[in-house]
Amino acid sequence: MIIERYGIKLIRLNKEDIELVRQKRNDPEISKRMYHREIITPIQQKKWFESVNNKLNYYFIICFQDKKIGLINAKEVNLVEGVGEGGIFLWDKDYWNNYVPTLASLVLLEFCFLSLNIFDLSFIRIRKDNLNAVSYNKALGYILIPGQENNDNQIYVLTKRKFIMHAAKLMKGAEILTGVKGQLKLSGQKSNINIEEINSLLSN
Length: 204
Description:
- This protein is α+β, with helices and mostly antiparallel strands.
- The chain has a single domain, classed as Aminopeptidase (3-Layer(aba) Sandwich), CATH 3.40.630.
- It has 7 helices and 9 strands.
- A hairpin with an 8-residue loop joins strand 7 and strand 8.
- Helix 4 (about 100-115) runs parallel beside helix 5 and helix 4 packs across helix 6 (about 160-180).
- It starts with a strand and ends in a 5-residue tail after the last helix.
């Protein structure tokens, strides 16, 4: 499954890419920004992938200008409550301080909140000292949950209502910034590791 917009491609994580993700995740410059900082072994990575390669967890390789630059996710999807947890990390340092992380997040949020129309809430966890992540997630509309101010690993939340309030402006800004217009595009094959709402949007 591939989600595309604004020159960004989100390609669902497959077995062939898990070693790449493991190596990048173990980079000290990456791991120090994470809550869990232990070195991940190949066996641990394989077990992790097997545990999340299902219809309630969606991990995507972020591709920009034909380069694999990071990983983004909507995980632990709860269809009853319409909620999921987001997360992202970029291993390509060229994109740490620009608009690309925001675009990747915007694409996934647009897909979850607008294309699927089954989600009411997204939450994320950010280390308090990860100021870049705090800044761009606030720009997307995420707000810190009260009582989290003194935690090292803080929880932010975004409601569908608030996203919709800002969506038109965000999308217009993304189109102007990238010069890429057009609707969000979803491609891929129907699969038993997709929820039915996703399969219904796929053509085969």
